[in-house]
Amino acid sequence: MKLEEKINIVKNILKDQKVAIGFSGGADSTLIAYLSSKFAKDTLAITIDNHILPTDFIENAKKATDSFGIKHEIIDINFYEDDAFLSNDSSRCYACRDLMYTQIEQLAKKRGFDFICDGNNISDLVIDRPGILITYKKGFKTPFIDAKLTSKEIHEYLNKNNIPYSRSTTCLATRIPTDTPTTYEKIKRISYCEDYILENTNCEIVKVRDNGKIGIIEVDNLDEITKENKYNQINDELKRQGFKKVALDLSQIDDDEYIDIDYDNSSFSYKLPYTINLENTKKQLGDKILSESKDKIGLEKISISENGLIEGHDLESYEIALNTFMEILPRLRRNI
Predict the structure, then answer these.
(1) Are strands 309-312 and 267-271 parallel, antiparallel or unpaired?
(2) Digit-coded pLDDT (tens) for 183-213
(3) Which of 53, 72, 100, 160 gives a 20 to 30 Å CA spacing to 92?
(4) Which pTM does this prediction carry?
(5) Alpha-carbon gap, residue 311 to 270, rounded angstroms
(6) CA-to-CA distance for 333 and 223, rounded, in angstroms?
(7) 3-14 and 27-39 helices cross at what angle (nearest 10)?
(8) Residue range 207-227: average pLDDT?
(9) 3-state secondary structure 131-157
């Protein structure tokens, strides 16, 4: 399916609805807000200020909604007051989204918006992001998933139509390894270090991973770090902030996420980075299930294993196989 055809699906989903959007100002929510401003009956963008987001996050969100001419409300939630979040265990993203989406849902309904959606796209379903379970739990709409839009396609459409968006909207707590407490001091140091690199280079995306004594830098443009001895300047500044060692991740950040399956001779396989809750998945699949065992579900031309392996067979082309895989992804229910 071509990009414009997918966008038209989203337009038809939003058309004449009163749409409330969980809005960050990043690529996904920006495109949802833009399309909703054109085709929905009314649009309300709701932004959560949780005190652990990048500098200028709120200001950028305000600019975007102003440019689209849509309503915008900000909800303040101090995540530093939530002990479950600060404990930072492996379910942190689930807990985070539960806190935010509960508030978004309450405000949207209070304002008379019963069509509540987020910017999750089909690429998000092949990444280890347990927060998607909250989207399902709350019944939020996912137009991009319905249209099988990938991150790469969303960026392509935004760039093609000169729609500005923020490339730095991810929660700073994700820079801290799980099972090590999140603290105000850690977040403050991460924020300062990322801002310093952004201000002293032409990088657009910067992440500083806080591994205690070691700071690990990830950027979207390695040349900006290595040219003109810039890395010496950055190394010295991060050490002044308390890191004993500073490392550079040589894998550049690429936010153009897409899905590529391993297809050969009418079959494909894809190993997801999480395990599948087969019982909950069976509830989504219903009468589509043709066979099942202790650790696997069989559908027509598809098998789903508990370990996250998805396999297909008797599929005539790569395009058919990929579409079949994308059809099944929203029905999967993962473990946390």
Answers:
(1) antiparallel
(2) 999 999 999 999 999 999 999 999 999 999 9
(3) 72
(4) 0.94
(5) 7
(6) 40
(7) 60
(8) 95
(9) CHHHHHHHCCECHHHHCCCCHHHHHHH
CB atoms within 10 A of CB 280: 14
Residues 120 and 81: beta-carbon distance below 8 Å: no
Are 130 and 231 in contact by the 8 Å Cβ rule? The answer is no
User: b vs e for 193-209, b when ≥16 Cβ sit within 10 Å of the residue's Cβ?
Assistant: bbbbbbeebebebbbbb
| pLDDT at residue number 229 | 83
Between residues 168 and 139, the one the model is more confident about: 139
Which of 176, 152, 164, 180 is CA-nearest to residue 65?
164
pLDDT of residue 228: 82
- Considering the chain, what is the average pLDDT of its residues? 95
Question: How far is 127 from 305, CA to CA, in rounded Å?
Answer: 17
Q: How far is it, in rounded angstroms, from Cα 172 to Cα 194?
A: 10
Pairing outcome for strands 214-219 and 245-248 = parallel
Alpha helices in the chain (DSSP H): 3-14, 27-39, 57-68, 83-87, 92-110, 132-138, 143-146, 151-160, 184-200, 222-226, 230-240, 278-285, 318-328
Report angle CA 183, 254, 55 to the nearest 5 degrees.
40
Q: Show Cβ contacts of residue 81 under 8 Å, excluding neighbours closer than 6 positions.
A: none
The answer to whether 102 and 131 have CB atoms below 8 angstroms apart is no
- Collapse the DSSP code of 333 into the 3-class scheme (helix H, G, I; strand E, B; otherwise coil) and give the result: coil
- Check if the beta carbon of residue 296 is closer than 8 Å to that of residue 303: yes
Per-residue confidence (pLDDT) for residue 329, from 0 to 100? 98
**Residue 289 burial class via C-beta count within 10 angstroms: exposed 0-12, middle 13-18, buried 19 and up:** middle
In sequence order, the β-bridge partners of residue 294 are: none
